[in-house]
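Question (not urgent): is this output format expected?
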Amino acid sequence: MAAVPFSAKGTPLNRTLLTLAVAALPGMAAAVALPSSISEVTVYPDRAVVTRLASAQLSAGEHELELENLPAGLQESSVQASARAAAPATLIDVQVRNAYPAGAPNPRVRALEEELRGVDAKLAALDDEKAVLDNQRELVLLMQRGATDAGQGAPRPTEQDFRTLQSLSADALARALSGLRDVAARRGELERRRDALAAQIESQRDRQRASKTAVLRLRLAESSKVEVKLAYAVREARWTPAYDARLQPAQRTVQLGYFGVVRQHTGEDWNQVRLTLSTARPSLGGAAPEPRAWIVDVAAPQPPAPRPAPAASRPRAFGQARLEEAAEAAGTASAADEPLEAEAATAQLENAATSAAFRIQAPASLPSDDSAQRVAIATATLPATLVYRATPGLRETAYLSAQAENSTGYPLLAGPLNTFLGDAFVAAGALKTVMPGEKLDLAMGADDGIAIERKLVSRYTENTGFSGSGRRVTYEYRYTVRNHKQSAETLEFRDSIPVSRNERIAVKVLAPSAQDARREADGRIAWHWKLAPGESREATLKFAVEYPGDVDVYGL
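Got this back:
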């Protein structure tokens, strides 16, 4: 590899930056270990790029600098090195080696071992406590046997003696047994903690046994201070987006909190680093995949499969399928901690051609234990349009929805969403990806301020045709809605009518008219109302299903 000289003139203001990809080179002479520290980390959805800094005062000549204790999961092909110097210099090459140190464990292992020794000491103390309680229990049993088995010539205990002994022994035995149960419970907790610590220690030792070392070869024309930067990718790190949406109904606004949940178990702790979250996905590659040939051929004949015996089917009443779908879709919301009222930090957005990067303003620290750390990316107050939605055929409840526009300038990636109505937690859900300028729809949960009722007014069957050979089944439903709020609100509610899959079955809508409601796909009918404060309104849905009398219709 040809050396690339610095163009610096020897002054600190004329430093030149060189960058070299990792090269596979033969082993070199003894090198000088150069202490380094992690300065910044860029986390992607499936990996991270870690940047280390180191500096040293070096004399003129050629030097080999070692940056040790790099993680075993380091991707060698991703290593990039650069150097700055105040004198003419050449960064010759960079090599990555496997290292198997036999020295003392790293500080994290020592801390875990110290905690493990504390747990062992507590377990030993519990063993002593258990021995004392066992001795007390045995002493009580010996006293009871001695009182009932009086020796020859000894006076027989009176009834009062038995009662006194029973009272004393019962109290002492109860205290001993209670103490033993408490010791067993505490011992179980300590043993579980001990197993977890032992697993962490073994994991850290495995990583320490298999680490990597980067060796940089540098040539200086004269003595100078050199600053070295080393960057590399590791896979055991990731981040996912999360959101808090807080609706303020009086102001008709949504306070949206955008967070990044970061996890890493790379084998090295990140302490007070500059953290950047990137939406780029390196795992997808740089180019679109090539389509494969779609082959169509004559299928080989297959032996006929045995026909299953016909199963007895039972028609379901109209609306039963929708009720079953609603029961499957019903979920439970997990409780959320009440948020602290404090000014939220934000991230600096750096847009690229194909991705966005969020530079977190405050330094972050993440231990290498796969624990989750939530960092703030942005907060925004978005004007919202409130709409109530209901499906009274499934549930006579109105649900509040807040519609807003993503005016943050940030792409909102898909992720979990906690919704709040004021300070009250409403529900846990998910947000789909919303780019800047696009609309987002936030479900804010049920609201009894809008009451809606659906009632079956009539259902009757009649014969049709001159000979009465046809059948007609007519349904009529009535909806009653009332706005109990002190403000005007918008309500959208939907219901369904049967959908015919056979040309001999006809479905006719008798009410509402096309001016009063909107017909949608798959037999849905939608009403869109604006309700004044305290206003009540009614609507009717009436339809008929007609079919020949010799046809058995399923679903009515």
